[in-house]
Amino acid sequence: MKIINDSAIYLFGEIFSKLIPFLLLPYLTRKLGLEGYGELANSQAYIVLALVFIGLSQDGAITRYYYFHGKKSIGLVITSGMILSLMLAFLLVVFSVWVENLIFLYISLASLSQTFLKVQLSLRQCQKRPLDYTAIQMFSGLSTVIVTVLLFEYVEAKFEYRVLAIILANFSAFLIGFYLYRKNEKLKLSFSWKIRKKGFLYILTFGFPLIFHQLSFFMKGQLDRILIYEYFTPSELGVYAAGFQLAGIFSVLLMAVNKATVPYLYEGLKKGTINYLIILRWFKLSFLVVANPGLCAYLIPDFIYQLI
Asked: First-to-last CA distance in the chain?
């Protein structure tokens, strides 16, 4: 089945993308030290927070539009979202200059670059092109490593330069992905305000209500880093963040299956082959397997964690 093949490709991409930070972890902790790694973890938490407002769930908006309205005007949605994100990021940049805080500037650009990259990845997911998706993902990951090492070895090992490496890698991967998409799909850019306004309204009406939903994910996954940074030391946050990085390995398989199945889910909803009752039945069946990752982690002997 094609869905199994797609899942395998996405799994490879997810493993590769997660393996790079995992392999880079010893390098970063030794170069930055625990305190510097804690500063990096704190900055990454704020990047995720800024992404909630700058991104406006554009990847989800594009996926929904693609399957419910077709791809005829998808270019309008893509470019409208990009313009909105640029405007919101510009406000954060102005604020960072006003308060004279360079890291706020990096956070703004990092969130913007991740938004643009996620949109390109979402497009490939909608088109059921897992190979293209994985290629862009791998290029971004490898570029991040290369730029990080170059900056650390030939400039200075600072957590700000790690964030800068992420910005440069994400924008590079986005530009390549956007160029190829525009070339293959013959994307036309419209400057008519009447037409453009429809794109803005679609992104805002879809993304704004989901801000609260995205903030809940931020609170579950990133807020603890900010609190640890405020009430403890950056070194203690560095230890926690390193452990959290290791724990993230267990989510790789789940994310791969999710990326492969989402396009088929939307397609089934549009055709009527999937409905509310079917989704509810899947939801109930999921309780049979939801504890498996935790069980696997529990069965792994403690000495293996200590060794790592």
From this structure: 37
Is residue 251 within a helix (H) or strand (E), and if so which, with residue range?
Answer: none
Longest dimension (CA), the chain: 63
pLDDT at 175: 92
Query: Which of 250, 252, 270 shows the shortest CA–CA distance to 260?
Result: 252
Tokens of 269: 């909803």
- The region that residue 270 occupies, defined by phi over 0 for left and psi between -120 and 50 for alpha, beta otherwise, is alpha
Asked if residue 244 lies in contact with residue 21, where contact means CB atoms within 8 angstroms, the answer is no
DSSP-assigned letter for residue 232: S
What is the model's pLDDT at position 206? 92
Q: What's the helix, strand, coil split of the chain in %, to 5?
A: 85, 0, 15
Does residue 25 contact residue 162 with C-beta atoms inside 8 Å?
Answer: no
How far, in Å, CA of 302 to CA of 43, rounded?
31
Query: Is the pLDDT assigned to residue 185 strictly greater than 80?
Result: no
Residue type, 257: V
- The encoded tokens of residue 132 equal 């293209």
